[in-house]
């Protein structure tokens, strides 16, 4: 594959990942992701997350919406309760990991060329 074509593909993939990259760039949302990782397998409710990250319920709800809209967090309804969780099969984090792997590969190739 030609270098220009690879760069164009990476550019498009960065565009597809831009919302998720922006979402995970916020320290508060990173704290929420960590709280979800520490939580129960079936998810955590807003109140539980609020206790973990020391934010107000409205603030946590806002950040969860951003993470959900970015495809990072999923929600499961049980009656009137919402349980938020990380789903590796559906998360855009998988797409970001793939993108970063491609970038890393290209950096390794470029590094080897510079060392010659």
In short, what is this structure?
Pfam families: HTH_5. One of its GO terms (molecular function) is DNA-binding transcription factor activity. With 116 residues, the chain is mainly α.
Description:
The structure is a single chain. The chain is mainly alpha-helical. It has a single domain (3-114), classed as Arc Repressor Mutant, subunit A (Orthogonal Bundle), CATH 1.10.10. Helices cover 66% and strands 9% of the residues. The chain is built from 5 helices and 2 strands. The protein has a two-stranded antiparallel sheet. The longest helix has 22 residues, at 3-24. The radius of gyration is 18 Å and the shape is elongated. The relative contact order is 0.15. The model has no long low-confidence stretch (mean pLDDT 91).
SSE blueprint:
Blueprint lengths: L2 H22 L2 H12 L7 H8 L3 H13 L4 E5 L2 E5 L7 H22 L2
Antiparallel strand pairs: 1-2
Helix pairs in contact: 1-5
How many runs of DSSP E, i.e. beta strands? Answer: 2
| CATH architecture identity | Orthogonal Bundle
Order of strands, main sheet, comes to 1-2
Which topology does CATH recognise? Arc Repressor Mutant, subunit A
Order of helices and strands: HHHHEEH
General form: elongated
Task: Return the structural class.
Answer: mainly alpha
Number of domains in the coordinates? 1
| Mean pLDDT value | 91
| Percent strand | 5-15%
Assign the CATH class: Mainly Alpha
Main beta-sheet strand count, sense and barrel state: 2 strands, antiparallel
At the fourth CATH level, what is the homologous superfamily? Winged helix-like DNA-binding domain superfamily/Winged helix DNA-binding domain
């Amino acid at each position: 594959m030609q270098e220009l074509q690879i760069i164009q593909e990476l550019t498009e993939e960065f565009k597809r990942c831009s919302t998720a990259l922006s979402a995970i760039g916020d320290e508060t949302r990173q704290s929420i992701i960590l709280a979800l990782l520490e939580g129960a397998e079936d998810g955590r409710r807003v109140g539980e997350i609020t206790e973990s990250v020391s934010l107000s319920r409205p603030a946590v709800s806002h950040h969860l919406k951003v993470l959900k809209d970015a495809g990072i967090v999923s929600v499961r309804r049980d009656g009137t309760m919402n349980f938020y969780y990380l789903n590796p099969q559906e998360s855009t984090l998988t797409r970001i990991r793939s993108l970063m792997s491609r970038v890393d590969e290209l950096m390794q190739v470029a590094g080897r060329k510079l060392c010659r």
